[in-house]
């Protein structure tokens, strides 16, 4: 059994890559993927801390399952919004969407 650092470092790298991708990308799909990467890093932290702080309980695992379900619903809603924006603007660049007048 490894130490907690072996699990937290990849989660930290995933979260930092997600933040960097979210801040630098202008494509809505790439921003959504970066957001999902950050949510997955947080889910890894939930499971790791539950495993090390309360080894006999499954609270962190259950919370992670609910977080994954909410993330899936959020992704479906975001993709529906992106499709509607693409139909009206023919582009999914964030800069073009902020210039649109509804």
CATH topology: Helix Hairpins
Radius of gyration: 17 Å
Encode the helix/strand succession as letters.
HHHH
Instruction: Give the helix tally.
Output: 4
Mean pLDDT: 88
Unreliable stretches, pLDDT < 50, 5 or more residues? Answer: none
Content-based structural category:
mainly alpha
Helix content: over 70%
Shape: elongated
What's the CATH first level?
Answer: Mainly Alpha
List how many beta strands DSSP finds.
Answer: 0
Biggest beta sheet summary: none
The percent range for strand residues is: under 5%
What is the domain tally? 1
> How widely separated are the two ends?
56 Å
Level-2 CATH architecture: Orthogonal Bundle
Structure characterization notes:
This protein is an all-alpha fold and 102 residues long. It has one domain (7-99): Orthogonal Bundle (Helix Hairpins), CATH 1.10.287. 81% of the residues lie in helices and 0% in strands. It is built from four helices and no strands. The radius of gyration is 17 Å and the shape is elongated.
Keyword list:
Helix Hairpins; mainly alpha; 102 residues
Topology:
Elements: H1 5-24, H2 28-53, H3 59-89, H4 94-99
Helix pairs in contact: 1-2, 2-3
Question: How would you sum up this structure in a few lines?
Answer:
This protein is an all-alpha fold. The chain has four helices and no strands. The chain has one domain (7-99): Orthogonal Bundle (Helix Hairpins), CATH 1.10.287.3510.
């Amino acid at each position: 059994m490894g130490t907690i650092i072996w699990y937290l470092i990849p989660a930290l790298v995933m979260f930092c890559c997600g933040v960097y991708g979210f801040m630098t990308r202008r494509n809505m799909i790439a921003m959504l993927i970066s957001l999902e990467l950050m949510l997955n890093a947080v889910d890894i932290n939930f499971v790791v801390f539950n495993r090390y702080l309360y080894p006999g309980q499954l609270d962190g695992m259950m919370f992670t399952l609910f977080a994954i379900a909410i993330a899936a619903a959020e992704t479906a809603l975001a993709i529906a919004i992106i499709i509607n924006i693409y139909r009206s603007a023919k582009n999914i660049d964030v800069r073009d969407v902020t210039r649109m007048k509804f």
